[in-house]
Specification:
Largest sheet: none
Number of strands: 0
Structural class: mainly alpha
Number of helices: 10
Radius of gyration: 17 Å
Helix content: 55-70%
CATH architecture: Up-down Bundle
Order of helices and strands: HHHHHHHHHH
Region (Disordered): 1-23
CATH superfamily: Heme oxygenase-like
Strand content: under 5%
CATH class: Mainly Alpha
Distance between the termini: 44 Å
Biased composition (Polar residues): 1-14
Protein name: Heme oxygenase
Number of domains: 1
């Protein structure tokens, strides 16, 4: 039985924290995946720049979370995981600028909800191997234009498992657990709003 099947058959009482979050945000995640693929980001560099601008807006609001001192005490090494600088370098490679389409919208700056946002952001890198291969079709790779999609030197799987273990080990009370879950939903909602902005601009 694969992990997806085991998560679906498990009960909330037997699931880990991140298994519960994954199960509760599955529809959010699928909606985002569908909308991103509908952009056809790897059909042309112009399409890819639109995708990259979405990434820039998202990772810009995530950067303070990765740098938060209190979270780094709970999740050692978190600061080094931020991909914001790589996204900026990718935009520079392609002579493009970030998009200021989400003014006034930001991730929370305190509380357990930040962990839900981090779960969504880190999880997006787990599936980036497929996107990196697709980027090669338009002449991009992990040293030009698609740096933010590259794997950690330890490997995507190992890096993700370490992060999952760190978040599952956090001691949270009931209110913090609820905030964690809401944070994950809010992160997906935020990216959804970025996609809707992109659609309006492209129309």
């Amino acid at each position: 039985m694969n992990s997806e099947q085991s998560t679906q058959s498990a009960t909330p009482e037997t699931m880990t924290r991140l298994e519960r979050v994954k199960a509760n945000t599955r529809e959010d995640h699928q909606q985002i995946d569908n909308m991103v693929m509908a952009m056809k980001p790897f059909d042309s560099r112009a399409n890819y720049v639109r995708f990259l601008q979405l990434q820039h807006a998202f990772h810009r609001v995530m950067k303070p979370l990765y740098e938060a001192e209190d979270i780094n005490q709970l999740v050692p090494g978190l600061a080094s995981r931020s991909r914001y600088d790589d996204v900026c370098a990718d935009l520079a490679d392609l002579g493009a600028a970030g998009r200021e389409g989400a003014q006034g919208m930001a991730a929370p700056q305190k509380g357990a909800g930040r962990m839900g946002w981090l779960y969504v952001c880190e999880g997006s890198n787990l599936g980036a191997a497929f996107l990196l291969k697709a980027a090669a079709r338009i002449g991009l790779d992990d040293s030009f234009g698609a740096r933010h999609l590259r794997a950690h030197s330890d490997g995507r799987g190992k890096h993700w498992r370490e992060f999952v273990a760190q978040l599952n080990a956090l001691e949270l009370d009931a209110a913090e657990e609820e905030a964690f879950m809401k944070g994950a939903h809010d992160a997906f909602d935020f990216f959804h709003s970025l996609l809707l902005d992109d659609q309006r601009l492209a129309a």
